[in-house]
Amino acid sequence: xxxxxxxxxxxxxxxxxxxxxxxxxxxxxxxxxxxxxxxxxxxxxxxxxxxxxxxxxxxxxxxxxxxxxxxxxxxxxxxxxxxxxxxxxxxxxxxxxxxxxxxxxxxxxxxxxxxxxxxxxxxxxxxxxxxxxxxxxxxxxxx
Length: 143
Hints:
Number of domains: 1
Strand content: 25-35%
């Protein structure tokens, strides 16, 4: 007896969900601290004056002066702040100030209690290369 339509649909969806989870896990958890900063800087391009910003898809605290923000699929920026922002490591949400949909060096990262942490530098990340390298490292495993 052939499987019913709902069961037949579940198998491809389960496989797709499992594959997506595997890729996400292979990408690794967001890293923090000096080694994380060094890793992100290795994938960071030259500083840019600004970037267009419509939504914040994700963010990761690197340390108290650096945060990675994802603005779209495969689009992320390493933001360096002018001064340490201690709340960055403890906040559950951040916001970015922008002018006419553009984040520049004159904007801020907003953390707990509406504290503004001024931006010093914006650098685009090569997200595709970073994910590919992490997948390759995960596939090779510990040696």
